[in-house]
């Protein structure tokens, strides 16, 4: 079927008012890889060794099927993906919004989002194979105090990401050209436009162009914007849910507030989270439920599908500390 934005997965998620709560995927650390060639559906297959790393895709000589299969496990993309998995790092391709100066050197970025360790480091990327030196610590790069804004525009993964994401990327880049990057798939296609603010790994969903700069401005003030927030990838979903319900109850929107101090799993789908709040420690109990929806969660997906929904069971001052 021909893609139409009004019937795509993102538009349908808005119509059925699907909650954004606690939908941020795990993302404690990131490897940002500048790539100027067209991105395939599986992003890291765009990585190649040696001088072919940025050869336009149309000019590459196609390999026979057996050769591709034989090379796949030794390809740069496969090795980088495997190494990232070992290190707990999420790799994504990035590119500038709009035209790019071809003479400008490509860059890599390494971002740590773990609480208390937040940092951004950048370096030059002479070849895709150089990423292995970065991951092995041989190239430490240079520290940057500037935040990074990622907007998913990976149209070959899901058309909604490109259709909804590109206007948001353009709006951000108009004000913050050095901080803003389009990026490959980050999860949650139906929540397009998806924006990630680093180094705190804040995932925002269903972001309209008119509010893109607002997210960046509030981030500069170390404040979150609750109605568009999917959660922080630095925390597991039950913690994301507990933070959401605490903010809904009136606790501070400050970025450094509501950090988890203890996570206790009470049953298969129920957790008790102790949060450190400016108003004193909070004990938040949340439960997860699977709902069946007559909808496609991606444009290429099938219906019906299942989505996870979190509910607040209890929120109170930590009983071990008193009111």
UniProtKB/TrEMBL annotation:
<dbReference type="InterPro" id="IPR036249">
    <property type="entry name" value="Thioredoxin-like_sf"/>
</dbReference>
<protein>
    <submittedName>
        <fullName>Sucrase ferredoxin</fullName>
    </submittedName>
</protein>
<dbReference type="Pfam" id="PF06999">
    <property type="entry name" value="Suc_Fer-like"/>
</dbReference>
<dbReference type="InterPro" id="IPR009737">
    <property type="entry name" value="Aim32/Apd1-like"/>
</dbReference>
